[in-house]
């Protein structure tokens, strides 16, 4: 067997290649490169898929987070609470909105935000709590909603890794507003950067759309200081084609995760845990192993595209050293960062390939 990638984008493209080609021709023939029916169609279809009534397509997931934060009133002088174990973009979006990131630790079993720590970190300056739906499952948003009731603090969800996931039967965004990314490697991936904001509130959707279109909804009408962050029509073509296959792809990911669970049984590996009430979509299958860096090197040398998500908690990056957190501030996040390992996972991953991955992993552990 040849190399086994972490994500097989070629296999994903093969499933939609003809439809994408036809869609590109359609856009080019009409010269509808900005906005238009392809973007509007995708927004309708993604809203229907998620079950959240409003969707606004934007240029990328980081912009989506910033725009969602700004739409709920986050700005200079505000604080936003988020987990330390996340991709840097989550904290970047807070900083770009002019606010201060306030970090908290994670649950050591699920890697999701420690909601008790988040609620304890709320101050008079807190304007939002930003749970991250990591690896394909939702954080305990309902606990945050209950704890924040009556405070005026908003929940803004980072839903970049959970397209199609639910918690207690509810999707991301159903607690108010959520931002997602369509980076190529996501469960729903574009052919470049793309993102969206989904919300239950029409007024928030209008604000996001206004901010993303130079602060106005019509040409030369600028009501707010906005930016240029619009979903490209060509990316919308790709996303519409892939969206039609997303439910089946998520089901295939669940089946692959179950196979990994069985194959890894008995190995010195900490397998991932699905929180009670969650319907997981397995964006990533993340295990914990001892001597992780050596194990990763062995897998990569054997042609297996394992990776790390993420090797450095936010507070230990030079970019956010100014927040003043030192090593030891978030012990669960720090301990996990030294041991986590992401195994190959994508809808087209076959059982034979998974057996090779686990056999090679077992050899590396031995």
TrEMBL record:
Keyword Membrane tagged: no
Keyword Chaperone: no
SUPFAM superfamilies registered for this protein in UniProt: PLP-dependent transferases
Keywords, in A-Z order: Aminotransferase, Pyridoxal phosphate, Transferase
Database matches in InterPro entries: DegT/StrS_aminotransferase, PyrdxlP-dep_Trfase, PyrdxlP-dep_Trfase_major, PyrdxlP-dep_Trfase_small
Pfam families the UniProt entry points to: DegT_DnrJ_EryC1
GO terms, molecular function: transaminase activity
Family to which the UniProt record says this protein belongs: Belongs to the DegT/DnrJ/EryC1 family.
Protein name in UniProt: DegT/DnrJ/EryC1/StrS family aminotransferase
């Amino acid at each position: 067997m040849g190399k086994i990638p972490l994500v097989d984008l070629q296999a994903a493209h093969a499933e939609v290649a003809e439809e994408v080609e036809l869609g590109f021709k359609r856009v080019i023939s009409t010269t509808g490169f900005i906005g238009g029916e392809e973007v509007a169609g995708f927004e309708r279809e993604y809203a229907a898929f998620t079950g959240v009534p409003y969707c606004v397509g934007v240029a990328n997931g980081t912009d989506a987070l910033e725009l969602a934060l700004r739409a709920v009133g986050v700005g200079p002088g505000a604080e936003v609470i988020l987990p330390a174990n996340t991709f840097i973009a989550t904290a970047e979006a807070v900083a770009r909105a002019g606010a201060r990131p306030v970090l908290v630790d994670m649950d050591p079993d699920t890697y999701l935000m420690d909601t008790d720590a988040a609620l304890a970190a709320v101050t008079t300056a807190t304007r939002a709590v930003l749970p991250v739906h990591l690896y394909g499952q939702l954080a305990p948003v309902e606990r945050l909603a209950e704890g924040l009731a009556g405070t005026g603090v908003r929940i803004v969800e980072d839903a970049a890794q959970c397209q199609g996931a639910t918690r207690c039967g509810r999707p991301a965004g159903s607690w108010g507003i959520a931002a997602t990314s369509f980076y190529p490697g996501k469960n729903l991936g574009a052919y470049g950067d793309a993102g969206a904001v989904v919300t239950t509130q029409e007024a928030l959707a209008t604000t996001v759309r206004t901010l993303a279109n130079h602060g106005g909804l019509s040409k030369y009408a600028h009501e707010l200081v906005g930016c240029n962050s619009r979903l490209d029509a060509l990316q919308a073509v790709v996303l519409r084609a892939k969206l039609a296959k997303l439910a089946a792809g998520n089901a295939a990911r669940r089946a692959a995760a179950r196979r990994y669970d069985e194959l890894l049984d008995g190995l010195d590996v900490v397998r991932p845990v699905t929180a009670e009430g969650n319907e997981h979509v397995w964006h990533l299958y993340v295990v914990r192993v001892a001597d992780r860096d050596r194990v990763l090197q062995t897998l990569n040398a054997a042609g297996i595209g394992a990776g790390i998500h993420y090797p450095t908690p936010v507070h230990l990056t030079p970019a956010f050293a100014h927040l003043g957190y030192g090593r030891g501030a978030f012990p669960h996040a720090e301990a996990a960062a030294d041991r986590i390992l992401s195994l190959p996972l994508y809808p087209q991953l076959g059982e034979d390939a998974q057996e090779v991955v686990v056999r090679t992993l077992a050899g590396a552990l031995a």
